[in-house]
Input
Amino acid sequence: MTRKEEYKEYFVKHSDTWVKYRKKRAYYWDSITQYCNYFIQDDNKVLEIGCGSGEMIEKLNGSSKTGIDFCEPLIEKARENFPGIRFEVMDAEDLSLDEKYDVIILSNLIGVLEDIEAVFNQLHKVSHKRTRIIVTYYSRLWEPVIRFAEAIGIKRKMPPQNWLSTHDISNLLYLAGFETYKHNRSMFIPFRIPLISPFFNKFLSRLPLLNKLSLNRFVFARPCPPSNSESAKNGYSVSVVIPARNESGNIEAAIKRVPEMGRFTEIIFVEGNSTDNTWEVIQKMHEKYKDKRPIQIMQQDGKGKGDAVRKGYAAAKGDILMILDADLTVAPEYLPKFYLAIAAGKGEFINGVRLVYPMEKKAMRPLNTLGNYFFSKLFSWILEMPVKDTLCGTKVMFRNDYLKLAANRKFFGDFDPFGDFDLLFGSYKLNLKIIDLPIRYRERKYGDTNISRFKHGMVLLRMSIFAAGKIKFR
Output
């Protein structure tokens, strides 16, 4: 008997009691469902491979949902219990669906597969270039515990499983043409004990170091971008938003130095409550250069850079949205690097990093440097991926992704006066691949910084704590 036949026999044998058995362990399964659901949007098309009797796919977000499994009796129960969802009897090694999905979930499935790489290869049939793959599985460290639970009858005894590390899963995905961009761990106690389980699972299992001992593993992947990026060079249009407060001496230099990128590049100046003649200079430069390149000018209604960015983004016409600080401490000549990174699919949110290359002497004050290093460590932990510089003014994303982010802004709240955290948190919630792009940070040539180290530092810390509650300890 092959491994596949052995497992099919196992699931058929237990199909009559499967729904009842799973319901008794709903605390464990619901925690996985809730975590995956955090990254699924209401308009997503979702596929679950190895859906069993359909409880997980039924609870997931999504406008269109499909579940497949090779056990016909379980699919029959799924169809009976959840008639509004499409269920198909299908082998994961031979997918024959006629749709492409935004999210594909394989929850605790890879342990029973005969050829994991073959199944991962099949995912291309049902994926598009922005598809997200979520693989969940037990930690290999828990194998003795799970075997013991089976031996004493707490858990139903299964045929021998595959036991894989996070690296093993990521490697198999890569061999099949998918890249892993994020992974996470959670859960110490897989059953409900009032007060105790929430404390251990929502708090202790999310802390650094302790997190490595967690039961559940989550691996996020996407199709590898094409190796040839030449075709992307002229494929998109660009909007460069330049918030400007007390920056009159930099306006003309910004217009002259922003390179042409893609099909066209527009510049959008958003003036914000200046006490000098910045607005008058913007108007004058717009008149001077309006026939030479696309330029929009406007004044923000509220306060803060974040408000200015949101107003500029709302007016933007380009496919790709970029922020360039008007102090020009990040040279406009770096912007094509950001364009090529996002156009070639290297990432979906490109985050500028000032902390790699040596800075000019007066580019950043020592206390600011320490603060940036602190927030980079904090954010890397919160967002479950390396983010080396949270406050670099240059950030780049697709306009379509920004529109989704803006529509879901209420999740984190509209409280970020800078805009950096709003974009980073929102991109994480959208399950985008965030990539750091190092740049050289220059001294300011005109004017003074608008940042107050202590006042704004406390604002950033409060925002980080709030975000940790919405992301890590939800």
In short: The mean pLDDT is 90. The CA atoms of residues 4 and 114 lie 6 Å apart.
